[in-house]
Amino acid sequence: MSEIAERVGIRKASLYNYYDSKADLMVELLEQSLVDWQEACRSDFPAGMKVEERLVAYLRAALQFSRSHPQAVGIIRLAAGQIPGDLRDRVSAILDRHDEQWRETLTTLFAEAIERGEVEAAQPFELGLFWSVFVHGLLINQIFATQKSDAMLSNLQPLWRLFWRGLSGREPTTELAL
Q1: CA 25/CA 19 separation, integer angstroms
Q2: In this structure, is residue 13 part of a structural domain?
Q3: Range with the largest mean pLDDT of 33-47, 71-85, 131-145, 159-173
Q4: Mean pLDDT in the chain?
Q5: Structural domain includes residue 60
Q6: What ranges in the chain are assigned the alpha helix state H?
Q7: Is 2 helix (H, G, I), strand (E, B) or coil?
Q8: How many domains does the chain have?
Q9: d(CA 143, CA 146)
Q10: Could you tell me if residue 12 is inside a domain?
């Protein structure tokens, strides 16, 4: 709290006018980081485009957000794995709520794509899980292997090609370039 107060140019006690505790501040930072993530990534996830185009747009936005907002990614990462005790329950509820909303979005997206013949028939929920694992794997690689992330980013197109072929049974028509 002292460090935060110093950075924003106020006394530590003044922070408690806005937040009752460090836990409340953490919850607010997590909520705002998740909202920022959603706004940045889902704005590039417009309806009306083919699922392939939408997934590529989302992936570009997600990778760009993680590179340009390391503090938000750090807060989400911290919240997802390193918070003990009672705060963990509050954080888990927030993460679970956002995850459920995202899975509903993905399930709908993939159900529509299956109906249009854009991807091979499967369970839409499972396709959403497949997508989430693919994206999270790329993001974790980028976050934890920053000195190697350029190598990973330079291989995005082959990774995308493998993923899309597994999902749709055909070659991608949308290039994944950052």
Answers
A1: 6
A2: no
A3: 159-173
A4: 81
A5: yes
A6: 2-8, 12-15, 22-42, 51-68, 70-81, 85-115, 124-144, 149-154, 156-168
A7: helix
A8: 1
A9: 6
A10: no
Q: Are 139 and 65 in contact (CB under 8 A)?
A: no
Q: Which residues contact 95 (CB under 8 A, 6 or more apart)?
A: 30, 34, 79, 80
The domain containing residue 101 runs over which residues? Answer: 31-168
**Location of structure tokens 């992330």:** 149
Structure tokens at 178: 């950052």
Tokens of 56: 């590529």
Alpha-carbon distance of 159 to 150, in angstroms, equals: 14
Smallest Cα–Cα separation from 52: which of 130, 145, 134, 160? 160
Q: Alpha-carbon distance 102 to 123, whole Å? A: 16
Q: Model confidence at 118, in pLDDT bands (50, 70, 90)?
A: very high
Tell me if 20 is assigned to some domain: no
Location of structure tokens 């919240």:
79
**CATH number, residue 39:** 1.10.357.10
The pTM assigned to this predicted structure is 0.77
